[in-house]
Amino acid sequence: MEIIQKFGLEAKLFLFQLINFLIIVLILRKFLFAPLKKVLDERKCKIEQSLQDAENAKVILKNAFEEKKNILAKAKSSADMLMATVKVSIKEAKEKVIIETKHRSEQIIDDAKWKAAAEFESMNKKIGEMSVDISGKVISKVLSDLFTETEKQKLMSRALEKIDEKIKN
């Protein structure tokens, strides 16, 4: 105790100061430290939640990026398949049009040949008829001076028959 007295400490005063200090500590603890700790804990939770949300967002973004790549790859694959199908369809349509055009042109040529042959036959017939008529007139002129009328008729009819037979054959 001597040491305490050398320093000028009084026990009663020290005790009251100690009690005051404890009361202030309890008051500060109850009204200052507890709310302050509560605010700090809430802030810590918010920060941890924000970090967790950021990590989740990173994962979601990474997944979205991967999904985007997959969708683009599928779209490209589908587009390539569609393009190949379209090319094949175009080639088939082109070949079909070419075949139809060739068939139609052959049909037109055949029709033209048939019409030309029919026209040729018609012209041959008309020419034959004209030649028989002309021959009859020529023979009639030539024979009019040489033969009598009955002989002329017989010769002319025989000549016309022979000309007809030649034309028909």
Summarize the model shown.
The protein has 169 residues and is mainly α. It is built from 3 helices and no strands.
Structure description:
The protein has helices at residues 2-7, 11-146, 149-168. The chain is mainly alpha-helical and 169 residues long. Helix 2 (11-146) runs antiparallel to helix 3. The protein is rod-shaped, with a radius of gyration of 64 Å. The protein starts with a helix and ends with a helix.
What is the makeup of the main sheet?
none
- Quaternary state, please? single chain
The counted number of beta strands is 0
Decide which structural class fits the backbone. mainly alpha
Total of domains: 1
Order of helices and strands: HHH
User: Mean pLDDT, as a whole number?
Assistant: 87
Give the N-to-C terminal Cα separation: 169 Å
Question: What brief labels describe this structure?
Answer:
single chain, 169 residues, mainly alpha, 3 helices
Topology of this protein?
Blueprint: H1 2-7, H2 11-146, H3 149-168
